[in-house]
Amino acid sequence: MRVTTAFNRMLALEGASVVSVEFGADGVVVGIRNRRRRLRCPCGWSTTARYDSSVRRWRHLDLGSCRLWLQGDIRRLDCRRCRRVRTEEVGWARLGARHTRDVEDMIAWLAQRTDKTTTATLMRTSWEAVDNIVRRVVAEHLDTERLNNLYRLGVDEISYRRGHQYLTVVADHDSGRVVWVAKGKRGSALEGFYDAIGEDGRARVEAVSMDLGTIYRDATRRRVPHAAVCFDPFHVIQLANRALDLVYKAAGATTPTGVGDRHWRNTRFALRAGAEHLTAQQHELLNNIRRQRHRLWRAWELKEALRDLYRRVDPDYARPYLKRWITSAVRSRIPAFKNLARTIRHNFEGIVAAVELGLSNSRLEGINAKIRLIQRRGYGYHSVDSLAASIYLCLGGITIQLPTQR
User: Fold this and answer.
1) Are residues 238 and 352 in the same domain?
2) What are the tens digits of pLDDT across the range 225-269?
3) Which residues contact 15 (CB under 8 A, 6 or more apart)?
4) DSSP state letter for 176
5) Which of 42, 182, 199, 347 has the CB geometry, 3.0–4.6 Å to 189, for a possible disulfide?
6) Span 124-137, mean pLDDT?
7) Residue range 187-199, pLDDT digits in tens
8) The model's pTM
9) Looking at the domain assignment, is residue 128 inside a domain?
10) Residues 69 and 179 in one domain
11) Neighbouring C-beta atoms of residue 152, cutoff 10 Å
12) pLDDT digits over 297-311, tens only?
């Protein structure tokens, strides 16, 4: 069997034939010839007339301990549709790449599972090359239909560099995939997403979950006023715990033990813990509070009553239940909870909608934890585009097929 025939069968290059094989100091160089006579522009237009040609070399999967290179002519054409000179599209490599598709798919598969330094070392390439390959693979594989048929969304922000630099992340509650990543946490970042899904897409949106901030809420009400805004239950209960802390600190400062000692911290932990998670010792602490500090006990009862809104109350009864809770908080004459009642009254519809629809930002918090992992294993990202590409690669529902699986 001839060497070129063996390499033709071994490499199985799409649209190319092996014409020569050379062994050099930098590895094995395989000469290839494009079998396609017509030149195809990336825009889809094709012609038989070429503008010019040059020799290009592409890195392929290693052949044992040797690097393997593909070398052949690459042509350019004067595209009538693009109205400029462009490089032809070839089957074995992506546009503008110096690595073959097999190498890039292998690197992208590894980048989904490990850090870029490990990937670069294993594939014997540079960290920058891995970053560029991830961007090209994401640009090709990211589903353009991901912005269609979106009904229930979640939006949150995450910091990606020091100095309060943020990304706005939008996820689909039904699929759990990240569908949009934009720089900044301003309303314009979210409005860019609403512009991208178009008028029909905005009409299909039924609910959007978010935190209690006004930035995303106002942008959502401007662009999709018919959608239900659902405020995350975690942030609502967090406000209740902060109000309880204020009451406890005020009570603790007047006691002989003072604020910050061990007993004070243990009691504070018991007050913040859910009633269903209390130990026997913590129950005893709360019983003592009930007998000696009725005001603090009443604050704890209000906090637990608000938690019951999400745990025990029938969603159909959420609206009257929350109204009763607001009345109880105001009548308690506890300043911290009176302020909390005003905040809840101001965000009443969003809190009730979250209970009725069963939506929270827990999925977004899980996505943010995974983004933190992506940042740590990448040892930080200096470019927001690189981080966004890695997020789409790992969390955007992209499936990379290895060359050995084809």
Assistant:
1) yes
2) 999 999 999 999 999 999 998 988 887 655 444 445 677 778 888
3) 34, 35, 36, 90, 91, 92
4) -
5) 182
6) 92
7) 889 999 999 999 9
8) 0.87
9) no
10) no
11) 19
12) 899 899 999 999 999
Backbone angles phi, psi at 38, to 5 degrees: -80, 140
Looking at residue 261, its pLDDT comes to 65
**pLDDT value at position 259?**
46
Give mean pLDDT, residues 51-61: 92
Average pLDDT over residues 77-84: 89
Q: Do 304 and 366 share a domain, yes or no?
A: no
User: Judging by beta carbons within 10 Å of its beta carbon (0-12, 13-18, 19+), is residue 230 exposed, middle or buried?
Assistant: buried
Q: 329 to each of 308, 311, 321, how far by Cα in Å?
A: 15, 19, 12
Report if residue 110 sits inside a domain: no
Q: Which two tokens stand for residue 358?
A: 């069963």
* Total of domains in the chain: 3
Please tell me whether residues 200 and 267 are part of one structural domain.
no
Residue 124 lies in a domain: no
Q: What share of the chain is helix, strand, coil (3-state, %, to 5)?
A: 50, 20, 25
Rounded-to-integer distance, Cα 126 and Cα 67, Å:
14
Asked whether 307 and 237 are in contact (CB, 8 A), the reply is yes
122 within domain boundaries: no
The answer to whether residue 12 scores a pLDDT higher than 90 is no
58 CB-near residues (< 8 Å, 6+ apart) = 69, 70, 71, 92, 93, 97, 98, 99, 100
Domain that holds residue 291: 234-357
Name the residue among 162, 98, 164, 163 with its Cα closest to residue 129: 98
Whether residue 227 is found in the same domain as residue 259: no
The token pair at 117 is 């330094």
